[in-house]
Design a protein that fits this description.
The complex is a heterodimer.
Chain A (H helix, E strand, L loop, with lengths): L3 H6 L19 H29 L3 H4 L14 H9 L2 H29 L8 H10 L6 H13 L7 H4 L7 H12 L3 H9 L4 H12 L1 H16 L3 H6 L8 H4 L11 H21 L1 H14 L1
Helix pairs in contact in A: 2-15, 4-15, 5-9, 5-12, 10-11, 12-16
Chain B lengths: L2 H7 L4 H35 L2 E2 L7 E2 L3 H7 L2 H32 L6 H13 L2 H11 L6 H8 L14 H10 L3 H12 L3 H9 L4 H29 L3 H6 L20 H11 L3 H26 L9
Antiparallel strand pairs in B: 1-2
Helix pairs in contact in B: 2-14, 3-14, 4-8, 4-9, 4-11, 4-13, 5-9, 9-11, 11-14, 13-14
Classes of the chains: A mainly alpha, B mainly alpha.
Chain lengths: ~300, ~325
C-alpha cells in the first residue's frame, strides 16, 4: 500500500491512457489457469477408460494385440458388436439384467419413501434412536452376511431365482431412507396438518399430499437403485448358479472361458452395458449430483 | 397387548402412543427387513461359526475349532494383511485425490459442470465393467498405460502379473470412484463462509495458512465421513480382485492373482464358503470381519476427537 505513490510517478508513458492502468496485482488469471489445467488433465484421465473401451471394442484382434497400441481403430470392426452378442447368450443375460434391475428399482421406489415417511413426518418416541440404527447399518460390510444369507435362501429354495436379489429391495435401503428423509424433513408441517384437519388418515397424507411433492427425491432413489442393480455383481454371483439365470455382470465371464480371451468382444459387450448408464447420467445429471451431495448436508 | 406395560414403563402420553401406532406401519418394512436380512444372518453366522457345515446335510458342532484353525491358517493371515495393505493405500489416497479434485473445482472455473460430470461418471459405471477395461488398459503386451510409460522413458510395469503391483492396480482402479467424494467435498468447500478467507487475507495469511486454519477445520466432519465410508468399502473389496483373477472360470484351484497377492479377506471368505464348501469356517471369518469393522470404526471415531472440528452452536 505504501508503494502506491512511487509507482504512479514512475509511469511517464501512461499519460495518454484513459483510464489509467490499474495498479499491478498478483495476476488472478494464472491461478484459475493452473486449476483449469489440472482439471482438464484429471478429466481426461477419468474419461480415458471410456475412450479406451470404445477404441478396443472397434479393433480387430490383430490390431488389438499390436504394440504400440493404435490410438484409434484404423480398421473399425463394427461387426465386433454383432459377434459379441452372439458369442455368448447375450440376449438371455440382458433380459435377466433388465428383470433384476426393474424388480430392485420398483422395490426401492415403494419401500424407501414409505419408511422414510415414518422416520420424518411422524414424531414418535424413540424415533431418532431407531433412525440411528438405520444409519449404522450403512457401515455394516455386506459380506459379513453372505454365508448365512446363502444358507437361509437355500433353505427357502430361493437359489437360482431372482428373489434373493429383488425381495430385500422391498424392505428399504439405509442410504435411500436417509436421502428421502432429508427431503421429507424439508417440507413444512402445515401441509400435513391441513390435510389431517380435513380428515385424511396418515397414509392418505403420505400418498396424496407428501409423495407428489417428493417426486424429485423419488427420482433420485429410482435412478440410483437402477444404476446399482444394473452393476450388481456379488449377489447374482452368490445366488444364481444356473447359467440361464445369469445377468450380464456374471455372464460376461464367458468371454474369458476359452484359452484366448477375445478382449475386443469383451470391450464391445462392456460398451453395450455402459451405454445405458451414460445415457441415464446425461439425461438426469442433476438428480445424480443432488443425490450424492445430500450426504454433505449432514456430513 | 405386550406393548401396554412398555408404554407405561416409558411414561408415554396418549399422543406418543398414537403416533407410535401411526408410524409403525410405515417403518414396518424396515423393521422386518432389518430382522430378517441383517440381525438374523449375523446371529445365524455366529451359530454356524461353531459348526462344521458344508451347506448340505447337518451341521456338526466343533466348538472353537474354526477359530483355532484361523490362527494357524497362513492364507487367512495373507488375506487379512493383503486387505489391510490395500486399505492403508486406497483410503488415504482416495481422500487426497477427491480433495484435490474438489479444491480445483472450487477455483471459480466457469465450466465446472463439465469437470463435475467427467469425474462423477465413472462412479456409476458397473465396477466389473471398469475392471475389464483396466485389464485391457494395463495389459503388459498391448496396454495403453505401459505404452505411455514407455513414451516417458519409464520402465514398463507388469501391473497384473507382478505381485508387487497387483494391489497398486486395484488402488488405481478404486480412484475412478473419487468423483462422488469429490462432489461432497466441493459442497463442503463452498459452504465455508467467504468472509473468513477475506479477513484472513487482510491479516496477511497466505494460501497454505488459509487452508490449514480455515478450510481444513471446517471440512473435517466430511473428511471423517469419507474416511469411515472408504474404510468400509475397502475392507469388503472383492469384485475387482475376483474379476482380475479370472473369477468363476478358474474354479477353486486357482490362486487369487500372482502369489495370492489379490487374495483379499472377502475373496478368501467367498472361496471358503462357495468353492471349498466350508460354511462354518467362512462364518467364523465373517464374524471376525464384523468385529474388525466395528473396532476400526470405533477407533476412527475416537481418533477423530483429536482432529475433527465441530462448530460449537
Amino acid at each position: 500500500m505504501a508503494v502506491a505513490p512511487k509507482v504512479r510517478e514512475a509511469r511517464p508513458l501512461a499519460i495518454a491512457r484513459e483510464p489509467a492502468p490499474r495498479q499491478w496485482r498478483r495476476p488472478r488469471l494464472p491461478k484459475t489457469m493452473a486449476a483449469r489445467a489440472g482439471l482438464i488433465v484429471a478429466s481426461l484421465l477419468f474419461l480415458l477408460p471410456f475412450y479406451w473401451m470404445a477404441n478396443s471394442a472397434l479393433k480387430n484382434i490383430q490390431e488389438l494385440s499390436a504394440f504400440p497400441p493404435t490410438l484409434y481403430p484404423h480398421a473399425p470392426a463394427f461387426d465386433n458388436f454383432v459377434r459379441a452378442v452372439t458369442y455368448i447368450p447375450f440376449g438371455t443375460f440382458l433380459l435377466n439384467s433388465v428383470i433384476l434391475t426393474a424388480g430392485v428399482t420398483i422395490g426401492a421406489a415403494i419401500s424407501n419413501p414409505l419408511i422414510a415417511y415414518g422416520f420424518s413426518r411422524i414424531q414418535w418416541p424413540g424415533r431418532d434412536f431407531v433412525f440411528g440404527i438405520v444409519l449404522a447399518t450403512i457401515f455394516l460390510p455386506f459380506p459379513v452376511l453372505i454365508v448365512a444369507l446363502f444358507d437361509i435362501f437355500a433353505k427357502l429354495h430361493w437359489i437360482d431365482t431372482f428373489l434373493p436379489i429383488i425381495v430385500p429391495a422391498f424392505f428399504g435401503n439405509p442410504f435411500f431412507i436417509f436421502l428421502m428423509r432429508q427431503f421429507f424433513l424439508g417440507l413444512p408441517n402445515e401441509i400435513s396438518e391441513q390435510a389431517r384437519i380435513d380428515g385424511a388418515n396418515e397414509f392418505q397424507v403420505f400418498l396424496h399430499i407428501i409423495l407428489p411433492l417428493a417426486k424429485p427425491a423419488v427420482a433420485v432413489v429410482v435412478i440410483f437403485a437402477a444404476v446399482q442393480a444394473w452393476g450388481e455383481f456379488l449377489t447374482p454371483l452368490l445366488f444364481l448358479q444356473d447359467e440361464t439365470k445369469y445377468p450380464l455382470s456374471i455372464g460376461l465371464q464367458f468371454y474369458r472361458q476359452e484359452h484366448d480371451v477375445s478382449y475386443n468382444l469383451l470391450m464391445a459387450a462392456s460398451t453395450l452395458i455402459v451405454i445405458p448408464v451414460v445415457v441415464l447420467f446425461l439425461a438426469f445429471q442433476r438428480f445424480f449430483i443432488q443425490g450424492v451431495t445430500v450426504g454433505a448436508v449432514k456430513g | 397387548m405386550i406393548a401396554a406395560p412398555l408404554f407405561r414403563r416409558f411414561n408415554l402420553t396418549y399422543q406418543d402412543r398414537r403416533n407410535l401406532r401411526t408410524a409403525l406401519p410405515f417403518i414396518a418394512p424396515w423393521i422386518i427387513g432389518f430382522l430378517a436380512f441383517t440381525v438374523y444372518p449375523i446371529v445365524y453366522s455366529l451359530y454356524l461359526s461353531f459348526q462344521r457345515y458344508s451347506g448340505f446335510g447337518d451341521a456338526v458342532p466343533v466348538g472353537l475349532a474354526n477359530y483355532h484353525y484361523m490362527l494357524k491358517d497362513p492364507l487367512f493371515w495373507k488375506s487379512l494383511i493383503n486387505t489391510l495393505y490395500y486399505m492403508a493405500l486406497a483410503v488415504p489416497v482416495g481422500v487426497v485425490v477427491a480433495l484435490v479434485l474438489a479444491m480445483m473445482m472450487n477455483q471459480r472455473v466457469r465450466e465446472v459442470a463439465i469437470y463435475r460430470a467427467a469425474f462423477y461418471l465413472p462412479s456409476i459405471i458397473p465396477l466389473f465393467a471398469l475392471t475389464f477395461i483396466f485389464i485391457v488398459l494395463l495389459n503388459p503386451g498391448f496396454g495403453f498405460v505401459d505404452y505411455v510409460l514407455g513414451l516417458l522413458h519409464l520402465p514398463a510395469v507388469n501391473w497384473l502379473g507382478d505381485p508387487h503391483w497387483t494391489k497398486i492396480s486395484v488402488v488405481l482402479l478404486a480412484q475412478l470412484g473419487a468423483g462422488g467424494p469429490a462432489l461432497i467435498f466441493l459442497a463442503a468447500l463452498r459452504a465455508v463462509p467467504q468472509e473468513l478467507y477475506e479477513s484472513a487475507t487482510l491479516d496477511g495469511a497466505g494460501a497454505i495458512r488459509r487452508f490449514y486454519k480455515i478450510t481444513w477445520p471446517l471440512i473435517t466432519p466430511v473428511i471423517l465421513f469419507d474416511l469411515i465410508y472408504g474404510m468400509i468399502l475397502g475392507i469388503q473389496i472383492f469384485t475387482p480382485a475376483f474379476v482380475l483373477t479370472g473369477g468363476t472360470s478358474g474354479g477353486g484351484a486357482y490362486t487369487a492373482g500372482p502369489d495370492n497377492s489379490l487374495l483379499f479377506y472377502v475373496y478368501y471368505l467367498y472361496k471358503q464358503a462357495f468353492q471349498y464348501s466350508d460354511m462354518g469356517y467362512a462364518s467364523a471369518m465373517a464374524w471376525v470381519l464384523f468385529v474388525i469393522s466395528v473396532v476400526l470404526a470405533v477407533a476412527i471415531m475416537r481418533w477423530s476427537r483429536y482432529w475433527v472440528h465441530y462448530e460449537a452452536d
